[in-house]
Please model this.
Amino acid sequence: MKKVMFLMAVAGMFAFAACNNTPAEEQVVDTPVVEEMVEETPVDSMATEAVEAVAEEVVAE
Model:
């Protein structure tokens, strides 16, 4: 009788351990795609010409 009760206790432990053993569903979170915003700054033509003139002077030397 002791052996039967011991086996029932072991079987009960396995039965309770198996309850609700399914993995939780992964929640899918829809994240919107973020596009990078690039601001274009106007280039000052006088500054560009000045830099080119200095570069030409350096090359000439």
About this structure: The longest helix spans residues 2-18. The CA atoms of residues 22 and 42 lie 60 Å apart. The radius of gyration is 38 Å.
